[in-house]
Amino acid sequence: MSVPLPHVAQPSSPTEYVLTITCPDRPGLVADVTRYIFECGGNIVESQQFEDRLTTRFFMRVHFVTVSGGLGPDELRTAFAPIGAKHAMTWEMWNARDPFRTLIMVSRLGHCLNDLLFRWSTGSLNIEVPAVVSNHTDLAPLADAYGIPFHHIPVTPDTKQQADRRLRGLVGELGIHLVVLARYMQVLSEDFALSLPDRIINIHHSFLPSFKGAKPYHQAFARGVKLVGATAHFVTPQLDEGPIIEQDVLRVDHRLGPDELVTAGQEIESRVLTRAVRWRTDNRVLLNGDRTVVFS
Hints:
The chain is of the alpha/beta class. 32% of the residues lie in helices and 30% in strands. The protein has two domains: 16-95, ACT domain (Alpha-Beta Plaits, 2-Layer Sandwich), CATH 3.30.70.260; 100-294, Formyl transferase, N-terminal domain (Rossmann fold). β12 (285-288) and β13 (291-294) form a beta hairpin.
């Protein structure tokens, strides 16, 4: 199930675009890209590039503006196609202002959901949120407070396949571009993970040492940890092993009790997930095998 990102109508006023490129590194790449933008009547606002010398792969993100009455998005893509073919590029071009239709999935902890919805409501994230999905009903009032439809999809060993089909149907019906697991405590099916490569983002704690299972922050307190952190990554069929987008850590000490440690951990989880969503929906994250290139 591949959901195309939105196209826009032919522009009658200056329009901003983002072009992202991944390809083998070779001379002339940047020259061809910048010449193309110039010949299409565009003006470069921001350009970032990276050469991975270990793999000889080249990565580039260009943000440019077209002149009033210039080429539309379909014409721009058609004009760029020969350059992409010449350099064996994997490339994509979007209207920079088109929001990603984002499905947020949660279980019972609402800190990440609340942060995302607040930032969406203030316009600081380039997303639309057509629905919140949960395997519990605890956070329905929070979604309702923001006017977001809430879908309860319970998951049990007996209903897991049915839940997966319902979720896949919802993604298609709503035209979802990005799925965010904002502390969703269920494992997605392999088929679902493979259907949206680099389109599903997960967040989880990252302790040193690691604590799994119930109440990880209480386990961490019992061991006297000095660092807590969070990791946001793309979802793959391998549990919690997808390419990492963003991480952060916070130093703690003996003065924090278990509940205070939970609060500190939830705050850092929210920050890390929000940054990952912002960078992905600003088209700043490119896959590099099992790693990412993040033009932050």
